[in-house]
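Human:
I keep going back and forth on a fold encoding question. Comparing notes only helps if you start from a blank page. Show me how you would write down a chain together with its backbone fold. Write it directly below this note and I will take it from there.

Assistant:
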Amino acid sequence: MLKSAKDDMALFAKMMVERWPTDTPGDSARHQIAMFLVKDKKYTEAVSALEQVTPSYTGFPFCMYELGNAALAAEGETKDGKNRTKAIKAFESIVLPLEGSDPSLVKVYFIAKAKLGGEYYVTKRFVDLQKLSVNLSAELAMPHNRVDIDQVKDQEIRKAIATNVGNLELFALYGLANASFSQSKLADVSKLLDPLVEKASEGKMPEIKQNLQLGSALFGMALQANISIGDIEKSRKVVKALQYLSSDAEASGTANVVLLQLNSLIGEQIKDLRKKNDPKALETAIKGFTTILDDVTKEDSSKKKAMTNDLVRLISLNYSTMGLNEKALDLLKKAEKPKDANDPKATAVYRGIQLQQARELRYLKKYEDATKLMDEIIGTKEMPGWGGKDIDTLLEKVKLMETQEKYSLSASMASQIVKALVGKSSDNQIKEKYLEAYYHMVFGLLKFGTTSTDPAKKAKGISDAAGLIEKLITSQPDFGSIDSKKRFDDLLSNESEKELKEAFEVLKAKRAVSGTKIDAGNAAPKTGDKK
């Protein structure tokens, strides 16, 4: 529109307002003026104009809808909350038109209320949001509340609005549950989410699949709440609900949401119970968690298809966390080699399963089988395997040697890993591997000495181990990381390693006096034995 024409229309509208301040022409003019102001991004002025429109004006619902939008735009500029309050008040003022009203009025009512729901969520009025979503669902279900004169379009628009309203109900539930969750009122969380879990666990909630992120957050809270309060039966239902939620994602090969959460939750719960030293509670928890995991495997079997390797890996990790290593191993054996050898993701998962299988064999003291599998993974010089240069694999080999008390070999192998990683510790992941290998180098050297019948070898083993620990702490404060510190603190506080601690304290005292680092010798110790 040309500027002069626009100015003329604005002038005419202003004249109408002045001549009919409380009548329809004046309200219509205010509406028109406000639209000009919105177009010019003068939102505060637009809000002021629309606030003057009287409820008797036939276009009042449209004005209040525009007022709400303009106020939210103004809020984006002022950010003081005052305009948001005006927006909420405007959206709230719109009432459902009487039966037989123009469909456009009904349509703007539902759209405005959906926006109101969003503002209720932002302002944490979750109870109001819940009431609003319930009322809107009931009103949408009434056939006479048409939003378009065309029946096909009416159904399409109604369906889109219903989806939006359904999301509002879920957001209200999330807000209420999250408020209780943040206050550790886990029983309340469980109670709030029970109806949702029940419905989804029975496969009767397709709408929640439209918002996987929100559904995952809701069921994640329900899972953590029920596991934390020890309600295994409800936890089983939550797992079914999560499976239902992620069933389409699983079909397309994406990660399984259920077990990623379960693995973390089970690990935390088992760890806490072990710390509390409550064998009965631990036994009950393991039994319950096992039931949940068995449900998952049974569910997958009922689909009459092979379990994905991702699923095998995650479930077996859960079993292993609980010390059910035979179950973990049996499951790992069901893994299938990737059909496409050039698929990097599938190959990485399968290799992880192979390594985990070796680990479970070690836990079960099936050393011959573990060694055979590790040899296959690592290979030979002539026929190298994929694990020959993989740090996790090489560390597992070190641990396998340690478990069999082959300390000379374990110390030597660990020292080779340390040499390979020296100078690469700027990467935190590599640094952790370096520190882990360093610990096993120290441990192997120490045990080689203390298990020897030769007094001289024993003394040298203790002295060299203490020297390496002192060398580490002078270059890496607090042993380099939280995990590394815990390993060495546990070793030094072990009653059976008093001589190591004494030797270490002597070296520390010497360094404190001299102010220099003690020469701890070569970081790649030579034991000269193959014990």
Remarks:
- DSSP finds 23 helices and no strands in the chain.
- Residues 151-182 form the longest helix (32 residues).
- The chain has a mean pLDDT of 87.
